[in-house]
Amino acid sequence: MSEQPIQLSAGRLPETVIDTYEENAVVALSEALSAPEGERKALVARVAAMWPRYLDAWVALGQLSTETIERYAYFRVGYHRGLDTLRASGWKGSGYVRWIHESNRGFLRALLGLARSAQAIGETDEAERCAEFLGQLDPSGVPETE
Question: What is the pTM of this model?
Answer without folding.
Answer: 0.90
